Structures are given as C-alpha cells and as structure tokens.
Fold:
Amino acid sequence: MELVKNVVCPFCGTLCDDIICKVENDEIVGTINACRIGHSKFVHAEGAMRWKKPQIRDENGELVETTYDDAIEKAAQVLAASKRPLMYGWSCTECEAQAVGVDLAEQTKAIVDNTASVCHGPSVLALQDVGYPICTFGEVKNRADVVVYWGCNPMHAHPRHLSRHVFARGFFRERGRSDRTLIVVDPRESDSSKLADIHLQVGYNQDYELLDAMRAAMMGHEILYDEVAGIPREEIMEAVEALKNAQFGILFFGMGITHSRGKHRNIDTAIMMVQDLNNFAKFTLIPMRGHYNVTGFNQVATWESGYPYCIDFATGIPRYNPGETGANDVLQNKETDAMMVIASDPGAHFPQKSLRRMAEIPVIAIEPHRTPTTELADIILPPAIVGMETDGTAYRMEGVPIRMRKVVDSDLLSDREILQRLLKRVMEIKTASK
Amino acid sequence: MITLKPKEQPEVPLEVENVTPDAFAGKTVDEIKALPIWHGNGTVPLSDFFEVEGEAGATAAETQIIIDGDVPQTKRIGSGMTAGEITVKGNVSMYVGVGMKGGKITVEGNAKSWAGQDMSGGELTIMGNTGDYVGSSYRGDWRGMSGGLITVYGDAGNEAAEYMNGGKIVIKGDVSIMPGIHMNNGLLIIEGNVIARTGGEMAGGTIVVKGVIDEFLAGFKYHGVEKDIEVDGETIPGAFYKFTGDYAIKGANGTVYAAVAGNSHIAP
Amino acid sequence: MEHIIKNGFVYDPLNEVDGEKMDICIKDGKIVDSVSADANVIDATGKIVMPGGVDPHAHVAGAKVNVGRMYRPEDSKKDVEAAATGGRAGSGFSVPSTFMTGQRYAQMGYTTVMEAAMPPLLARHTHEEFHDTPIIDHAAFPLFGNNWFVMEYLKEGDVDGCAAYASWLLKATKGYTIKIVNPGGTEAWAWGGNVHGIHDPSPYFDIEAAEIIKGLAQVNEMLGLPHPIHLHCNDLGHPGNYETTLASFDVPKGIKVNAKTGSRDAVLYATHVQFHSYGGTSWRDVVSEAPTIANYVNKNDHIVMDIGQVTLDETTTMTADGPMEFDLHSLNGLKWANCDVELETGSGVVPFIYAARAPVPALQWAVGMELFLLTEDAKKVCLTTDSPNAGPFTRYPRVISWLMSNRARTDLMEGELHKWAQRKSSIATIDREYSFLEIAQVTRATPAKVLGLSDTKGHLGAGADADVAIYNFNPEIQNPSADYRALEAAFQHASLVLKDGIPVVKEGVVVNPTLRGRTYWVDTMLDETVYNEVVADVEKQFKQFYSVNFANYPVQDSYLPHSTPVKGVIQ
Structure:
C-alpha cells in the first residue's frame, strides 16, 4: 500500500489539503484526516454507478454506449444549432476546465451559469451592492475571539470547519476554543448550535429584521420594538455588545440566511453590519460555500468576462443579470432551447418547473456518475474525477487557490479535455456554416 | 404613427432595444421593418416578428408607436428613449422603459421585472401588474432611478424603487417585500398593502403607504401621527404614522408614512 | 522572420536617439543591426517609433483585482467589447477583464506590465490570470512589508535569515521583487488599526516601518535583485503625509546598489508618489507638497518614482493598504471589500469618483502634474496611474497629452476643473512641456531600467526584444502642444505594434489576440545552509499557523507556461 500525502479533498469549500490517501493497485482504498463525507467521496463509498463510456440516447429513449468522438460530435451539433444554449454546473471541476467552458459559452453565444445560482448567488448579489470584507482561514485560527455562524450547520455540511479554524490553536489564541466566543444564529437547535456560547434562535424568515435591529442598536439607536424576530430587545443588545467588543470577529454565513425571505438583502445587511462593526472592532466574514470549487468558477468567469455567474453571451458581449440570465430563470421562462450540464446535478436539485423544461430540450451531461441529471440527458460524456484521477486548480471558499492532486490513473478524458474537443468541433461547425 | 402588429411570439425571447421613437424617427416603413432585433443569440429584421404599418415622425418627439397586441416574450421596449410615445396594447416582458430619459410609455397589460430601471425622465405607466425591481438600479449600482414618473395600476413584486435617487413611483395596488430598499431620494407612494421591510436600509427619500404594512422594521424611529401630509409639493389627505430611518444606515434620514387606518400594530 | 521599419522618427532614450529618422531591423524576435534584402518592409514615414511601453506598476491580475471586477457589475456594464477576430470578448472600464487588459495595453503600444501587489498565499491566482492575459510580458510583486517572518527576522536583526526567506518566497510565489505596502500598517489593520509615520511600531511584532524598509532594502541588495525595493509608503492619502514620505525616502539612502541583472542606479523605487505628497492637517487645509518632494528627488540619486496620476474618472481603488481602504470607505460611503491574508498581508477595494468639479480630485490631479513637471530628470520618473487607483491604464494617452501640452492643462483648468487645483498647488505657474524623448523616457526607458529589464526591454538597440510601437503622429508637421487631442488619439490606438517581432496591433486593432507573454520571476540564493535552515523553520511554522500545507503552498511550474526566470547570483 502506498500513502499519498497532501491530497486536496474534492468535496466542500473548506478544501482540506492535508488528506492522506491509501492507494492499492491504483485505487484509493482509505484516507487519513478526511471527514466522513470526504472519505466516502475518495473511496466511492456512496455506491453510485460510474459511467465507463459515453452514452447517447436512441430514438427509443434507451442509452447506448458510444465513443467520445461520436458523443462529442452529437453534442457539438446540438450546441451549434441552439438559439439560446445554457451551460450549467461547473462547481465540481477545476479552473482550467471552467476556463475552456467560458470560452465554449462565448463561442456558442450561450448563457453560462454555475451552482452559485442556487446556493450563494444571493451572497454575490449582496457583495456587488455593498462590498465584501473577508479574510483567509488562517486569520480566523490565529486571531478570532468572536466567531459567528449564521444560518449554517458546519458540523454537518463542512465537518472539519470548526475543528480546523475554531477549536484549533492559533498564534494569538493559544488555547483554541476556550479563547473564543462562539455565537450561532439559527432558528433550529443543531449540532453546531449545541456547541455555541450564545445561540440566537431567530424566527424563521426574520434574519433581515434581526439584523436591522442589531445594526440600529450598534449605531446607538433604540430598537423600536420590545422583541424582534422572536428575540427580546435585551438579548439583542447583549449580542451586539459581544460583537462590538471583539478583538477580531468573524461571521460565517450559510444557506439558512441566503435562502430565507429576502435572500440577498439578508446578506447585504449582514455585510454592512460587519463593515460598520469595524468602527468598534476588527470584523470580517466568509460565506460557507458548498461545492469544493464553486468559488473557482466565479473567479474564472469574472476574470474572463467581468461577471461571476449568470453570464449571457447571446449578443457576443457578456451581459449579466441574475433573475433573468440564471439557469432556473431561462429554464422556467422556457428561454433556453438546449442545455449542457457539467460537474453538478440539477436533476436532483432544481425545481419541477425547471426539470420539465430540461425534459423538453436536448440535454448534454458531462458527469462521471449515474445521477438524476443523466436520467434526463440525451448525451452523456463521463470524465475522470478532479482531485483523484486528474489535477487542476480549485479556490477555497474565501478565495485561496490550491492545486488539486491526481492520486490514481483513469482511462477517461478529463473535463478539460472533453471541453477542449467539444470547443474545437463547435468552432469547425460554426466556421463551415459561415 | 407606427403600428407594430405582433406575429406569433417565440419561446426564445426577443430583445428590441430598437423599438423606440428615437430609432424609428425619420425612417421609412421599409427601413423600420429592416431594423435588427435580437432573437436569442442572433439578429433578425423586426418584420420577422412584427407587421409594420404607418408612418414615423421626423423626430422622436413626433413619433408615436403602437404595439397592437400581447408581446410577453419581448424585452427592452422603449429602452433609453428620449421623447415620443409608445403604447402597448397587451403584456410585455422585462425591462420596459429601461434607461428611459423622456417621452411616454403606456403598457395596457402587465410588465415583467425591471420596468423603468435606471430611468431618468419621462413617464412610464403600467395598467396591469409588474414584477420585481420596478424603478430599480442595475446590479451593483448605488445610483438608481433619478427622475421621471412610474405609475403601476396593479401590484408590484419585491424591491420596488431599489436604490432610488429621484423621481416618483406610484403603485396603486399591493407590493410584496422591501419597497424602497436602499432608497436615497425621491418619492414612492404605495396605495395598497405591503408585506414587510418597507424602507429597509433607506438612507433618504420618502415612502407613503396608504394600505396595511404587515410587519415593520425595528431600525426606525416613531414620531407620532401627522395629518394631511405634504410630500413633493402635493398634499396627501388622511392621518399617517410618521417614522424616520432606517437607522441601520449611518446618517439615514428617510421618511416612511403609514396610514393610521389598519397600521396600529406597527406603531409602538 | 525579418522586418525593417523604415523612415520613422525614432525615440529611444537608452540609446540616445531623439527623433532621428532611422531604420529599425528585426530578426527572429530581436532587434539587430541589419537584415537581409528579403526583410519585410514596414513603412513608418511620418510616424513615431518607440520601444514597446513598459508599465512598472499596475493592478491587472490577482485576487483583489478580481474582486474589483466581481463586485462592480455596474463598472463592467458600461464598457464592453465583443471579441476581436480569434480573440475574446470582455467588459470593465476601470478593471477590464483579462483579455481586454492585454489587448488594451497592446493597442496603446505597451508590451510589458508589472502586477504591483501579489499576496503570496494567493500567488497562484495571479498566475492563473496572467495565463488569460494576452500579449504582454509580465511579472508580479509579492508583498513583504507586513509578513510575519520578515518582521520576526528583522526584529531580531537576522538580515541573512530574512534574505534567505525572501529568496524562498520569491521562488515559491514566482515573484519578481520585494514589494512593501504600508509597512507594519496592514498587520496593525488585522486588529483594526494602522501605524502612522515610520517610527510607529506595529502591534505585537513591535517593529517600526523604518526598520522594515531598511532591512528589506539590505536584503534586496544582498540578493542582487534586478529591481530595488518597491515601496508604497505609510500614510497614503492623508493630508500632511509628505513628511512621512520624505522620511521614508531617506531610510535606504546610502545602501549600495548590487543588481546582478540590468543596470539600475536606484536602491529605492517609490510608487504612486502623488498620493504621498500632501501638506496640511485635514482635507480642509490640504495643500500640495509636490514641489518639496520633487526637490528631494532632484537632489538625490538613490530613488526612482512613479507618479500615480489622477485621471479624473470614476474608478476602483485597490491596494494591500487595508486600513487606507477602510478610511476611504468611511469617507465616501461606497462599497468596501477587504481581504486579510494570514501571516502575510491584506487588501481593500473601494470605488472612487475623481470628479473634475470636486476640490480634492482636482488638487490630486495637480499634485501628480507638479511631480511630473518639477522633477527635472525624466530618468527618475515613471508614468503610471497606479491603475486603476488614480485612473485606469487606458488613460495613459491622456496623461501624455497633459504632459506634452500646456494648452491641454490650461484648457482643463479653465474649464471644469475645480479651482483647488490652482489655489492649492503651483500647477498654473508651470509651463514645462515634455518632449517625445521624455515621454519615451517615462514610459519606456526609466521603467525598463529600474526594473532591471533594460538588457532586453525599453530600447531599440541590438539585442533588445523586438517590442516596437509605431504611432500615427508626425512630429515634423504636427504640434503636440496645440493638437493634443490628436496626440491622445495616436497613443490610444497605435498604428502598429510588434511583440517579439510579431505584429499584434495594426491600425489600433488587435490582430494576434492569442499570443501570450513571458512571466518574469527571480530565482536567487544567498547561502544554501542558511536557506535550508530557514526553509525548515518556515515549514514548522506552517503546520501551526497557516491554513494550507507547506507542500501545497509553492506555485507549481505548470502555472508558468512562458516562465522566464531571472537568475541572481549564488555566492
């Protein structure tokens, strides 16, 4: 058995890079340091069926095994013919593949969108309106004495997040957890809230109301009502004091606040609270991003086009407007007439109305496993898995870029190679038709 | 007067930045027919989707356009227009009157989101309902609608008058949440009801709500009841609770008037 | 492939060519003395010929640049471009997307651009963006001035250890120089504070800016780096800061130049000095102290500076000077982004509107102009806008027109520019106009030389890279002072630009958008034993205090497809 060290985990946005993989006969058979979710990804414990060859659905609706050349040819024909193609997903692949993807979208005058659109898209809209004061994880570990988790349950979704940054000892926090005040804001009791020093049990869909009261209180104003969002005025004042008295505070926020009523406005006002807290304390924030490279797509798309997601290349120049040019917007409004899915599973996560449109139009899936999305797909192109079978860059949730390692070999093409071949073929078709 | 009679509207939507009095003025019918419009990721002549009749004026101000029917898949009607008139005898898609500087647009049906975004002058009237972000700014911009008048006879969605900097919006029906979010200046009148977060993070400007506000924000200050309030040079009769805020924002001086009738639950 | 550029008016300060009509010969991407009769003839009759432009300080690639793009869709929307043939579309006025960045530099005749601030932990990001930035050669400056290791070594007086660490970090990040930003101040910002002046110790590390500047200047010369320390002084943008600036300038004075590459004379490169030349005590009584600063530079030979000229646009400020950006946000109330980077540095981003009609921007414009015009020797000055901080790099042609035309400045001052420009500075009394030779000096020769790249960049002598810009302006019949608008247009869209002998721009249009430039970085070592000890120590600290593993930190070679290491000396 061989031990491969410093492996980067291709599961969540925490992007743990201290994983040791146990490899036998070119297969990962075990891990050290990985959380249970990361571990199961490495050893394929989820039991998912892996596509070993490209597939095309025949006229009877049956999937038929085929070659990459054939499947890529068919996919290229679909994309070249489409009046408004949608290319969605991107969050579980590496940045160079994403870059080829943005190029492909531009050449086919498509809409390109990633999973941020259904997770931290509201955070992006908010940071575009009011700003983005963040720090890297090490700052939290070394300095933070007040740690807030708002609308997230890291114990479940990001299992090593707490142990690596909050429980861990840091340069100025030699005792680790006991040097820090942990505040959890969540309507529910959770495994994370149980660990908290302060648990603000905000009413459902009342995050904005609570934040508005906290901000006014922080500025020295009286809170208008005795109770806001189910929390008594005095308790709000205590929480505000705890935040103001921080030496270094950090707000981690998750889907519980990005997707409660008002969406991006909850984040907007949370960001502004953090900004204003810097008049009293040092305070920063980090969004708890899910897919391991959802952040990377937003970075790549931004430096290539100027916009992080929901990019519409229809007119040859990039345009951007979530709400109009998001994957679900163009599916539900029936604007899109062909879809390519890569490195995500909208079949499992999109609303029914979107899935109905997916069923109506040609769908190309670049996807290693059998998933609800591949059930809807007409063409399936299976890639090697990034971080295990091929390498590339990923961006951690706060923007630290890390090189994903290749641990074992695979006969399959990488996402990058598939996209490059698809791009080449689409360009040939477009040139020929001119 | 030019009449555009819509043919069948396609699933993949049209974008018609060219359908304005400014673009039509001084052109022959054939020239107007040939104007390019976007259909998905390609352009087609206007005549592919509209029958064109009539005569354009010599200038934008002298040009009137009638869209004679439903165009629910057509975006950006009247984009950036400076003068003249557009009447739509039906529903429109997004961005009607976006960046409008002058002239008049009347939509006799409903309008989807971003109606009158970044408007700086003119009049936009929507007889039916509208979606989210009526009279808003573009993503990321802290400078939204700066002038002109938007009137919505039906209901509006979320974030009406977002980052509004000037001008006036009147919504005769109900709105959903966050009317006047981040408003800096101008006047928003809502004759119907509001669910929540009226004036959230507003730094300035005035919001008048004649209907019922279900929930109100705790970052405001209460100043008692005022009768027959005077806003923007006009007197609005009735009794109103007066609030100022949103004090979540540094230096805020926005005003929210909420009709006394039906709103006693939000007065402390 | 051979080319001969015939009959142009050549401006090449490093070879003392001042507008002479002469031919430039090119073979295999290099300037040569002669070519065969088969050479492709490029007719430059009636046109200006200069070496490719060199930008020594701009923010074009990396984490905070991308935040600037991402969080300003309203800036992206107002300036968009469809793809040039074979190229890519893009957007962004103040912070263009990468493809647009490379193309717009090339269109202006620029072929080398330095990214002025790279957080070491995020170095990979900068290199990824370089990969998507066409045409221009480039390098990135890793940040050293608030680095824990640097502060610890220097506090203990271990300059050798610091030098070993610096050489390791330059290699690990594939960086080019020692960049210092608000030394000690950004570390203080990690606790919400700042330092003021050069003798205000940073919290915990208890080290003064003066000690950091001096120590790193010593390290720089010990390592024989091509470029001197690249210093963004403390107190940026604060009225009264000129005293800090002058004191900072004095710190490395007396250290001997020891560049192993190139031929620089300076031991200090001071950047965006415009932002550091203010008198008074507040924004009410602020005045220009540019004459005092220019006077210092005139009298001292250890320093080269760039200006950071305000261009009177709406733009996006971005810097590793974290506390400064929070101050700016508090001042203008616009959206604030920030990123503190563990053990190393920080950054901030805030939009800013330099309205000509507003008093402070008008004064800032005047301060920059005074620095340009009162510094006698153009060999000490580089033209920058600290892009996009004082304005986007696409305004260089306008800055050139202000420098070459007193009329352009007067028209502006008598037009919409706020009277503070005249009341609080001496700009209205200065009638100096730059010559084309001086323009070539501040946009080519000075930056190339101070970067240590003048063997191959910034001139048109034999052996130089064949980076050439040809402009549609005839100095024999056109007067740049009178016809400053034509001058600006000519420099905005060059007639022809060659990069390594390959045409990349023709009549202002990018014709070779898939070309990629070199990445320069410095590969140097002082003493192997000390180096190995230091690296072992760094690895130990990594385990405890960093959030990535030591083995995953260095930028892999695969990120630099056109890697061009500048070798130092192994003693």
Remarks:
- The two ends of chain A are 56 Å apart (CA to CA).
